[in-house]
Amino acid sequence: MDFGGMFARLSDLAGDAALVAGDDTEVSSRTVAVIRINHVVEQLLFRLVGELEVRGVAKKSGEGSTARLLQQAGMAPAVAHRYVRVGKALKDIPSVASYGVDGTLSGEHIDSIVKGLSHIERRNPELPDSDRTDCVRGLLAEALTTSPSAVAARARHMAIVLSPPDKPIPDAENHELNEFSFGTGDDGRSHGTLDLDNLLGEKLRVALDPLSQPVLEPDGSPDSRTSAQVRADALEQLLDSYLDQEDRPTRGGAKPHVNLTVSPEHLQALQLRGLGGVKPPELAASFEWTGPASASTAQMVACDSVITKILVDNNMVPLDVGRDHRTVTPAIRKALIARDRGCAYPGCGCPPGRTPTTSCSGVKAGSPA
After folding, report:
1. Per the CB 3.0–4.6 Å rule, which of 91, 122, 123, 196 could disulfide with 200?
2. How far apart are CA 69 and CA 63, in angstroms?
3. Which residues have CB under 8 Å from 102's CB, separation 6+?
4. How far apart are CA 32 and CA 363, in angstroms?
5. How many whole angstroms separate alpha carbon 369 and alpha carbon 358?
6. Model pTM greater than 0.70?
């Protein structure tokens, strides 16, 4: 089998100007044909990689794994692991492999079947052969008509239906596995990751969906934002709606709100921005959690806000709490935020929003930091 000659012909074709010549119908037809060819090439790779895995070629050649061997040949790590996973599995599901021979199924579709079947078998290790055959048939039918994500959803349905009655709840429904990391990077932007159970994920999607619809531009053209930008704007609207509610938990006696600390000189500069002779402030405005903000952002926040005047001396001497409050008042809390920009306990790095609370390692709950 002359693979070298086949590669040379395909390589010549890729550089041939005639490939993209012709009318729209011809170019479209060629595109579809190349997609099918690509699917067939993926199927060839699945078979070859599966054989490499069975023969243990990677270890014989000094590489730690078949995936590593593929990476040495120029394949990305995630893609290499996918080829190993599918290559090993296809030997046991020949009906799926047969649909890849003529390019009917893409590599992503075949991989979704392999992962879906693996998910079902993890939920029920004693799955009868007849049920396994039915699962393969059902996943294959889904792959032939829909997307890989739909195949994954079908597999989750099957896994739940076929799970033994005493089987623990699936990971997708396990609330104890939920995680949400969120922080501010060195660039001042906030970064986060979500790993939520399906109920909490459903709540988030239900809350964001009405706010995530595309909006026509003023001239009637389509929304220029990407899907990710639309969701980010929807999240902002959701938070604005929450912060506008009166019935919400308080923090330090005050309802949650955005704090932006500015000096009197900075506030005056914002009010007189654009006029000549205005001296720029020495310090930038600063948010409570995310730090310094530019003049344009500070001006946007200041134009629709409640201004609290805080008087301090040149040494930022603490203000008197008074005897009619056991803890700090909302106004004094703002003063402490402006003064300390965080917990005042030596060595404690907690941001202002966590002081004074039990989540701060340096102070006790109720103490004025």
Report:
1. 196
2. 6
3. 36, 40
4. 66
5. 12
6. no
Distance of alpha carbon 155 from alpha carbon 158, whole angstroms: 5
User: What is the full per-residue pLDDT of the chain (369 aa) written as tens digits?
Assistant: 777 787 888 888 888 888 888 899 999 999 999 999 999 999 999 999 999 999 999 989 888 899 999 999 999 999 999 999 999 999 899 989 888 788 889 999 999 999 999 999 988 888 999 999 999 999 999 999 999 999 999 999 998 888 888 878 888 888 888 889 888 888 889 988 888 999 999 999 999 999 998 888 888 899 999 999 999 999 999 998 888 887 777 766 666 778 888 777 777 776 666 555 556 666 778 888 888 888 788 878 877 777 776 666 565 554 444 444 445 566 666 666 666 666 665 666 566 655 544 444 444 333 333
Q: Which tokens in the block code for residue 154?
A: 């079908």
**CB atoms inside a 10 Å sphere around CB 197:** 17
DSSP 206-236: HHHGGG------TTSPPP-S-HHHHHHHHHH
Contacts 24+ apart (CB under 8 A), 70-78: none
As given in the structure block, the two tokens for residue 81 are 């692991």
Is-contact 269 295, C-beta < 8 A? yes
Residue carrying the six token digits 């040495």: 72
Tell me how far apart the terminal alpha carbons of the chain are, to the nearest angstrom: 78
User: Taking the mean position of all CA atoms in its chain, how far away is CA 350?
Assistant: 26
Phi-psi map region of 54: left, alpha, beta (phi>0 left; psi -120 to 50 alpha): alpha
Per-residue tokens: 120: 């079902």
For the record, the structure tokens of 324 come out as 């009619």
